[in-house]
């Protein structure tokens, strides 16, 4: 097969990083898991609408809802990080800025993910 | 040398060249709702942190969430979540290699629009029924 890459891209060392399929599969697998988990989140939000702190706390502290919430957060964070990575790669063209945005994306995902997980665990294990 | 090569390569027409189509708009909205949900995780984190901190923090947070702007943002979040979910399901159908005929694509797009609006309204009706019941 003839060379498909331009000489410029060859010099830059750009092109396939050999990880595109893994990205695609991870995006779709997390998406699949998120369908029922998102429906659970919506049902949960309806269930605690107008509820006082104790009722909402009891709802989240219930092991079943805590585990499903943790799954939504964990899987959702991975899915959104992959999605934002594609958005950044599509629209941010400056090399330095792109790297910065990709790093910020990962940091944001871990920060929000850990914050949510810590809160759910505290509610679940707390008195 | 790189400059002459770059100049010789054609540019593809950009968004504003094309006639607007529903499927095109849904593709764009899918991405926008995805970014919106990304930002929305901060709201989910704030809700959970407030809940973990105790009744006072929770009441303050729910006061903000229950305001008109809070409700609008939450309405946007639920619609974005539902719209993005149905968009994902449409992509799953395409991933199996099915649903690519033009007529079917158009039908799926309209089902997507109607289903996401309907489910969003149903969720909010259920929410307001919970408020009435409390």
CATH topology of chain A: 3 helical TM bundles of succinate and fumarate reductases
Fourth-level CATH superfamily of chain B = Fumarate reductase/succinate dehydrogenase, transmembrane subunit
Structural class of the secondary structure composition of chain B? mainly alpha
| Percentage of residues in helical conformation of chain A | over 70%
Which fold name fills CATH's third level, the topology of chain B? 3 helical TM bundles of succinate and fumarate reductases
Estimate the global geometry of chain B from the Cα principal axes.
Answer: elongated
Counting helices, strands and paired strands, the structural category of chain A is mainly alpha
Tell me what you see in this structure:
In chain A, α3 (53-61) crosses α5 and α4 (63-91) packs antiparallel against α5. In chain A, 81% of the residues lie in helices and 0% in strands. Chain A is elongated. Chain A has five helices and no strands. Chain A has 127 residues and is mainly α. Chain B has one domain: 3 helical TM bundles of succinate and fumarate reductases. Chain B is built from five helices and no strands. Chain B has helices at 2-8, 22-53, 55-66, 68-95, 102-133. The longest helix of chain B is centred in the N-terminal third of the chain and has 32 residues, at 22-53. The relative contact order of chain B is 0.09. The model of chain B has no long low-confidence stretch (mean pLDDT 91). Chains A and B meet through α2, α3, α4 and α5 of A and α1, α2, α3, α4 and α5 of B.
